[in-house]
Amino acid sequence: MCAPPSGLSRRAFIVGVSAVVLASRTRSYAQEGSGVRPRDRWSEGLEPTGPLEAERPEDVRFLLVHHTATTNEYAPHHVPGQLRAIYRFHTGERGWPDVAYNFFVDRYGVVWEGRQGSLERPMKGDATGGSQGFAILCSFLGDHGSIPPTPAARDAMVGLLADLAARYSIDPRPGATTRFVSRGSSRWPAGHDVTAATIAGHRDMSVTACPGEAGYRLVRDELPRLVSERLGAAAPVATDAPRSPAPTAAPRTEEAAATPDPPVETAGPSPAPPAARPPSRPPDTARPVPAAAGAVGVAAAAAAAAALRRRQT
């Protein structure tokens, strides 16, 4: 391998090259069919109830996976109604200005824009236990306490996380971590220094069972590898600090109680429960998540590495 440019450590150079290559590969991936159904496909005119804020793009440090802790038994045409019910719960009982999450992934492998503006900007989200900040929130639509996400949902989440990792220059490889000062959550009070995996579960940031035992195993053991393989950068990194042991899940009093099964708004008689393997993703004219771009070269790698080094220190 060629020597790193003057002033860069070997590790910083490798991370920088990876960031640029990931961005280039993801742009191609997005053009090949990765898409997100925009908010207006489910909202029926429901608007935020208060002001929303965006992170500065350079402050997006990691990707945080949730589950809604709602029913797994729904048909494709039930999904918009489920999202509207979650909106009403989050803006009503929880007092948040919009749905908490930037994106939802349903059991059929369809990705939906959640919080308004998330397709264009890194909108700050909300979460049970407070928000430590610096993350994009991606939630499975379902309860994954004991049942893992469907293969279609898992694959869609991998694609979504890959797009976002490239867009925000996040290194998704197994063992990759980032550091930041928490803005305040039930696990990391405001002002605490946090070292987090770049793909993490909600329970890593707050005292909660989310995204469920089965969901968290996927986040911890599989998603970093799968996202990295999707982007062609599967080699694990040697981290500056080891990843903390998985926090003990809180009793199912927060996420499940905080987000009860919303009433399903149907467009006809309820169908029989879905089969174990869901049907293929319905066709749609979804918009791709915008991906970062840039020429692959030493100069670009150096710039990306420098930015990442500043963010991780």
Concise structural overview:
With 313 residues, the chain is an alpha/beta fold. The chain has helices spanning 10-31, 79-91, 151-167, 213-221, 223-231, 255-258, 298-311; strands at residues 62-67, 103-105, 111-113, 135-140, 177-181, 193-197, 199-201.
Account of the protein in words:
With 313 residues, the chain is an alpha/beta fold. It has a single domain, classed as Lysozyme-like (3-Layer(aba) Sandwich), CATH 3.40.80. It has helices at 10-31, 79-91, 151-167, 213-221, 223-231, 255-258, 298-311, and strands at 62-67, 103-105, 111-113, 135-140, 177-181, 193-197, 199-201. A five-stranded mixed sheet has the order 3-2-4-1-7, with helices on one face. Strand 2 (103-105) and strand 3 form a beta hairpin. Helix 1 crosses helix 3, helix 1 packs across helix 7 (298-311) and helix 3 (151-167) crosses helix 5 (223-231). The longest helix is centred in the N-terminal third of the chain and has 22 residues, at 10-31.
